[in-house]
């Protein structure tokens, strides 16, 4: 019987694949995952018969083999969504489930089943409000001689019980309304008698965010006008709570602090708003952005208010109990006739107030700013500007301690308030200098240059700049530059392109007048930045280069496992140390390939292309590249490119402009020589980057 079932499954899969082959469309096969989250629910009759209903479930499964764990030799096969009944004698059994997907891949799980004809004893129930989901209660029941339990919520007008589960496993139930309820848990075994537990339990509602909104991306100062955000410099003198008389409507406000992350809180909002420190010309900006969290407001109106010709509104739908990221095109305001060259206020209106029902609903708002697409190909990231907490300096070579002082010459290229001061003491070593460590290692993957503003009493002095690993100072990059001015600020740049992404660079070292003994000369430095000047509307952003921890690959279509190896041909366009290796095994499927997931979803809003460096033994081979949502593989974008080199590295580009910014793309899939069966050819790939 088991052989017949196996043959039947194989025939179904063969017919399925054959039908698709006729239409030359096998793309769906690589998206079929192995079954996961396998479990079963046991329901036992309370009549001393030992009759148990087993209902298996799993993500990605179409059928199950159920092994009952007793003397029954053969399993029973059932479809997803169906159940099977089996009669047990008293005892404890390990019930095994083997789940099948539509390709025939399997995964299995085992659960313990207790069958007893005694009434459940020692019932212990744990009830708790979920820490992350509002009005959700998590229930755990444990008891001797019990198989399952039922949960009665205490609500009126709701069919009871509202949930059930296996004894010893947690279930959950979400209430519609917070409050105190008389709940009941009934533990059941194979006996007629059951055991109950009752309690008056208060169901609570989460009324404030428990995690911060997503941190905004780095932007050039000319590309953003920030009103309220810790990511950018805000318009000075801005009043985020002008009230405008709304306190009398029952509305109030506060600045909410979530573990140090501050955000605006408008309580029982009628209408509230923000008064800018000065009118802002946002005509060159493309969007206004804000992040909004609410537990009870369905919509929010955002109005731009001009100093000269009034205000215009735009409504946005909100997702309850979550952050809603809102980007409103400025054109939605100008199309209503609004002048945006003198915006001096923002107004937020609650849905309840707009409907004439008075103040109601509370919103938390963060990251309010206007922005546009980057205006140039230069992106910078500040490493240290000496305006905040002073770093811990270590000086060496017999010079005085480094100080952070008021800028002694706030003119020209540097008008900031504070700078670092180094005195190269008379008689100090030719290699005298100082260093400090940074909390976040330098991003040498996306930034290949560093800039420093320096002030020197000498022209022609060598400034040596060095980045190194604080845990191993034999791992470093050092570069020299030469001062060209006297007693004035200038910006020096240092090429760090030979820094290895596999090394942690968290120490910054600087030497002034390197090679000469100290003579009491005084030097200043400031504004230490990482710089990406690779050009384009946005500098390329590498999201995988295989130099650090290797990703977890999943290969499919009968090819060998993917490996990260030393670059076998470190020439031409790719001289990096490590690359990924794919062998398209002889006889493997035409759609064979591999995928890995990324921790940070791809930014398809900013970037519209992906570039990959590839090495192929064939010219004219199709490389299919695909990005998808790991939680829903029906959401994807796939693009083909063709190799043009043989046994050499080249860079292929894939247009992903059709990707939706509302979808999470966190899975990367690649197929080499797509459409042809495997022939043991070896392919390599590396340097996957978002670009434009």
From TrEMBL:
**Chain ranges of the PKD/Chitinase domain:** 39-118, 122-206
Gene3D superfamilies in the cross-refs: Galactose-binding domain-like, Immunoglobulins
Q: Which UniProt keywords apply?
A: Signal
Signal sequence, start to end: 1-21
- Superkingdom in the source lineage: Bacteria
Keyword Signal: yes or no? yes
The protein depicted here goes by the name PKD/Chitinase domain-containing protein
